[in-house]
Amino acid sequence: MAEMEERSVDGATNEMIEKATQDGVLTVFDRAENMRPCPIGAEGSCCKLCSMGPCRLPAPRRREETPEEKDNRRGVCGATIETIAARNFVRMVAAGTSAHSDHARTVVEAFIQAAKGEGSDFGILDEQKLLQVALDFGIEIAGRTSREIALELGEEALKEFGKPDGTLKFLERAPLRRQQVWEEQNSKPRAIDREVVECLHRTVMGVDLDYKHLFQQASRTALADGWGGSMLATELQDIMLGTPVPTTGKVNLGVLRHDAVNIVVHGHEPLLPEMLVVASQDKELRAAAAANGATGGINLSGICCSANEVLMRHGVPLAGNMLQQELAVVSGAVEAMVVDVQCIMQSLPKVADCYHTEVMTVSHKAKLPGAIHIEMDDAAPLAAAKEIVRRAIDNYPNRAQSKVNIPDHSVDLVAGFSHETIGYLLGGLFRASYKPLNENIINGRIRGVAGVVGCTNARVKHEDIHTQLVRELVKNDVLVIQTGCAAMACAKIGLMTPEAAHLHAGPGLAEVCETVGIPPVLHMGSCVDNSRILMAATAMVKEGGLGDDLSDLPVAGAAPEWMAEKAIAIGQYFVASGVYTVFGVTWPTVGSPEVTDWLMDEISESYGGKWAFEPDPIKMAKLMIDHIDEKRKALGLDEARERVLFDMEMRRDLDAV
Ligand code: SF4
Ligand code: MSK
Prior knowledge:
Blueprint: H1 11-23, H2 28-34, H3 39-42, E1 46-47, E2 55-56, H4 67-72, H5 81-116, H6 127-136, H7 146-159, H8 176-184, H9 192-202, H10 211-241, E3 247-251, E4 261-267, H11 271-279, H12 283-291, E5 298-303, H13 304-314, E6 318-320, H14 325-330, E7 336-339, H15 348-352, E8 358-361, E9 372-373, H16 382-395, E10 411-415, H17 419-427, H18 435-442, E11 448-452, H19 464-475, E12 478-482, H20 484-492, H21 500-504, H22 507-516, E13 521-523, H23 530-543, E14 555-559, H24 565-576, E15 580-583, H25 593-607, E16 611-613, H26 617-634, H27 648-655
The protein binds iron/sulfur cluster (SF4) and Broken Fe4S4 cluster.
């Protein structure tokens, strides 16, 4: 490790990797170094779907295979490399969709309890959004109380997982042209669980053996994620916990504090984190912390998307992203690491053994050997939250000062850009509108919009691709919207403050951002909040002037350092929604050039969107910008990049903010 170049572009991460080495602690960075990925699996060329296998079907290296060789490249059952690569991909989509959607199911169940008002710690915080979503579900709102409407909405939402007839309700939110595309492709998801189950069935040995047909199910399932599970999670969380509005926060391991009980929340579902926010402000618990010597009280921060959720709604600081979870413990200053579901490393308790940190699991879905399990009631997690805070306070005196090193790195950011908030900021409180955004795209000040999302990945230099890519995009007047771990990477280099506009953005984008007072890179939330990006893009289409479908927009998406199956599900729903989507690091169907070419080209004939793979961030930015420019040209906007002065109406729109 000592001879290696730095593993991250982030100073705090590098410092903690070095401390881990000195403390004799192995982290993900060491394990990635010690274990090379299997090249056959990485290409999607390995099938282990039955006990006649696993069948490994690598292509010849360093030369093109002959058609005969290709035809002979089959598993024991005769499955071709195309089928094997597609089946592996479909299973990733199914797994990713199930993760976001099972998260959503937990939220819906808690929402129903909140609506009933029985034994719930939650209520209805955003009544306006409740009415909007209820109308989208065709629920009668006149003359009914919020609780009545919410209860019916919750019950209808629950049906989306397993209803026997029809298709998902939120599909009707999409532009009409997009709905027609899905109809033509027979890819409208019916019920969320059904699509996941059908993926698993179709990929069992000897069922669906036509890769294009398999990808039709991949699209349908992924759409059940984006326009189903993820969107349900986001919308019902907003109604129950509050729709995010711009809020300031801080990011990086420097948000941990010497003088406070540090509780780090990690995972994805926001229910427990919400109640940890409440518990950490509890007077009695604060007094107990002070009595134990923590003069700074209780300091809550987070890792991954749990962190993004409580940042967006409460300004809770972000300790870091996925690859920093062990490093937070290595700081020696964390009393409790509380994890629920997804992106949790099993090594956490082992790392914690070297310090005083207690790792705690809370979900009935997820246990972790070596962790303390404090099971929460999803609808009423306050009791578990208080117990966790109490344990953390009791653990504070066990902190060994000799082992503490909190890196002196933290950066300010502004978060909380829900798609509604973007409309309010641009159009004004009383006439929320995407018109100024569209106008500024049409006049060329803003070249286009890019969604840059997804994970961090130990196979590449941590945060390097994210930060290079996003810098390049904003420099070229592309407004960037972000979620997940990607957002934290860019926040850490200061791209999420309003000042970043004049420091990093091209002149057109900077002018718009400075006029409105927003950063050139907008934090839209957690992984399920990629559904906010779908809604923002839909609002752009509906505003007019940029075509009549999502595939007409000058927009592109990327997950430069992806690692989770969830990212593949997200990418596939963006592609099936008409968006050009670029992934970095590695591509899971490389083993079949035919499937790869089809995903990166021909699929666009069906959906208007397609995949691309490019590990180099600058080349990735170029691909995205070229695509944006192509779309501008198709819309007749290529000339319009010559600067146009604001007309009075546009000026008034912006001044009204
Ligand atoms: Fe091999 Fe076919 Fe079994 Fe897959 S399903 S492991 S390709 S025999
Ligand atoms: S947490 S899925 S590492 S973005 Fe949503 Fe980060 Fe990827 Fe997990």
